[in-house]
Amino acid sequence: MDLGIAGKWALVCGASKGLGFGCAQALVREGVNVLIVARGAEALEAAAAKLIADGARPAAASVQFVAADITTPAGRAAVFAVRKDFDIVVTNAGGPPPGDFRDWDRDAWIKAVDANMLTPIELIKATVDGMAARGFGRIINITSSAVKAPIDILGLSNGARSGLTGFVAGVSRSKLAGQGVTINNLLPGSFETDRLKVTMSGAAQKSGQALDVVMDARRKTIPARRFGTSEEFGAICAFLCSTHASYMTGQNVLADGGAYSGTF
């Protein structure tokens, strides 16, 4: 299927590895020009080299990268100094650490909200008007399945990402929807990422069990009986960015192998 986005420009955040890299890879393979961002310069440069060397990448698809902390004003300024206008924006920031809510002070909450709610909002604010003027725009916020099924040790993430979800529910249904701009959230369940290992390590420590035991127990709770891959996550992202998804906006798309048992 031709997704109809070859030649578009995409900003993909947190793209040096994991789900962000999976999204960048899927877009590049569709002929999209990408600017990838992450804090770690070495890992980001390696990710860019991998994208450029990808045999499925059309030769015309450009790959650029900026090592910056997208959650800071300086980091966003560095990105927009390289390129101001984007047709596609994939927001993605590492989730806050797991723990007991009794241990989190105001600074911990502010940091979580800043990274996982306010940063996506700033990126949306910086790009949607240009998208609307051109008649095409796709914003995908990588959030978490915890927005639908909160996880007790991820209170910081539950709160901050739910705030973003509420914001998107409103802004996605504004006049932007009639100007060719869609805004959707992509909710990952358990994927083979460093983030999963951190979360599972926290659960292992809390339960006193070995990490392998906790990981295996999590797999057994997933109807698919496995963790997801960044490549298949990227494919979902690419579809939401496509011309075929133009009638989808304000949605929370859950990718969790069937783990969420609710009807809605």
Describe the 3D structure:
- Belongs to the short-chain dehydrogenases/reductases (SDR) family.
- This is SDR family oxidoreductase.
- The chain is built from 8 helices and 7 strands; from the N terminus they run E-H-E-H-E-H-E-H-E-H-E-H-H-H-E.
- Helix 5 links the parallel strand 5 and strand 6.
- The protein is globular and about 55 Å long.
- Helix 1 (18-29) crosses helix 8 (230-240), helix 4 (106-134) packs parallel to helix 5 (155-171) and helix 6 packs across helix 7 (211-220).
- 44% of the residues lie in helices and 14% in strands.
- With 264 residues, the protein is an alpha/beta fold.
- The longest helix is centred in the middle third of the chain and has 29 residues, at 106-134.
- The chain starts with 8 loop residues before the first strand and ends in a 9-residue tail after the last strand.
- Strands 3-2-1-4-5-6-7 form a 7-stranded parallel sheet, with helices on both faces.
- The mean pLDDT is 95.
Task: Supply database-style keywords.
NAD(P)-bd_dom_sf; 7 strands; alpha/beta; globular; 264 residues; SDR family oxidoreductase; SDR; seven-stranded parallel sheet
Query: What does the radius of gyration come to?
Result: 18 Å
Mean pLDDT: 95
- Describe the strand arrangement of the main beta sheet, using strand numbers: 3-2-1-4-5-6-7
β-strand number: 7
How can the largest sheet be summarized? 7 strands, parallel
- What's the overall geometry? globular
Query: How widely separated are the two ends?
Result: 29 Å
Task: Give the count of helical stretches.
Answer: 8
Poorly predicted runs of 5 or more residues: none
Tell me the structural class.
Answer: alpha/beta
